[in-house]
Amino acid sequence: MSEAFSQGESAGESVIASGYVGQFARLLEQSPDEAVLQPLTDEDFIRYAIAEGKRFQDSFEIIALLKKSYEIYTGLKALRMASYCAFQMAKEYFSLGEIKNAKQYFNYAVSLYRHEGWTTLLWEILGYLRECSRRDGSLKEFVEYSLEMAALPVSSGDSVAYKECGPAGPPSFQKREIIQKEVVGLVAVESGFPSSDVEKNLRITGDSPLHLEIDLVSPLRVVLLASVAFHEQAVKPDTPAKITVSLLSHLPALFEIDALDVQFNQSECNFTIQNSQRTPSAVNSTSQDSYRVESAPALVLSTDKWLRLTYDVKSCR
Asked: Where's the Trafficking protein particle complex subunit domain (predicted)?
């Protein structure tokens, strides 16, 4: 939607309401000789009204118009247009600092963009959601949105014809790497991070560890995939068996794992794969007390390359 109304162009224009229900709105143009009513579609009327609201920076008027359009499109099951209106509403709320309302409509739009794979739009809207979570101190959401952005298959060429990129700026491989480094630094509690008063709300402490769940419907499936395969079709009790654990990362840079727990419904079969190049943390050591510990030369995931680890499963009854 493009609205460009200069001061000169809008000086002699005004919009009058419909004379009766269903009639098109009319644009009144003043000329030296006569005033002429020209047909104006409802769509043009909405465009004009929003442009006028932007010209006078009247966010509440813009939100009211967009909300009405959003409700109409939702009723018509026109999900793409409803999502577009929700996205525009959310940006207006964001500009007003109303983070709760902004997140509500951002979340409505992002679900469709994820489902249909609009990666450039996803980059923009996830950038807004990431900034919302940063401002209201939602650590878990901040990490989730950051990881999802870092794993998006976008590049600098995707934004050539798309001017609006949101708080994250134009998409690029380098920007994805920066986001990954930032969130990994936050999770690892590296020195020097966080650096601002807002980011101090996102600090991870030992009393409140961060848990992210990646299930079959999680948006984080674009970030990391894991699978476990038995080598035999059937395993008898007390019979050793082999399994292969496969991991895949879509993050732009190398992703290192300290330890990996493999759990079964029989706890005696559980074991931990420890990265031999990393010192076990206190959290990992606690969780490994009852686990058999296996060692791996390295647990480093490269972009779009499977890492496969094969181990024995012992004493499963």
From this structure: 8-151
pLDDT tens per residue across span 222-264: 999 998 998 888 877 777 888 999 999 999 999 998 888 888 8
> Are 186 and 244 part of one and the same domain?
no
Rounded Cα–Cα distance for residues 255 and 195 (Å)? 23
Structural domain boundaries, residue 303: 223-313
pLDDT tens, residue by residue, 95-116: 999 999 999 999 999 999 999 9
- Note whether 192 and 270 are same-domain residues: no
Instruction: With CA atoms as reference, report the closest residue to 124 among 106, 142, 143.
Output: 106
Burial class (CB in 10 A: 0-12, 13-18, 19+), 214: middle
Note whether residue 277 is domain-resident: yes
Determine, yes or no, domain membership for 74. Answer: no
Assess whether 172 and 227 both reside in one domain: no
Q: How far apart are CA 108 and CA 175, in angstroms?
A: 25
Helices (H), 11-118: 42-55, 59-75, 79-96, 99-116
Q: Is the pTM of this model over 0.85?
A: no
Give the total number of structural domains in the chain.
2
To the nearest 10 degrees (0 to 180), the angle between helices 79-96 and 119-135 is 30
CA neighbours closer than 13 Å in the CB half-sphere of residue 78: 11
Three-state DSSP state, 66: helix
Give DSSP secondary structure letters for 240-307. -EEEEEEEEE--SS-EE-SEEEE--SSGGG-EEEEETTSPPPHHHHHHTTTSEEEEES--EEPBT--E
Is the torsion defined by CA of 271, 275, 276, 280 positive or negative? negative
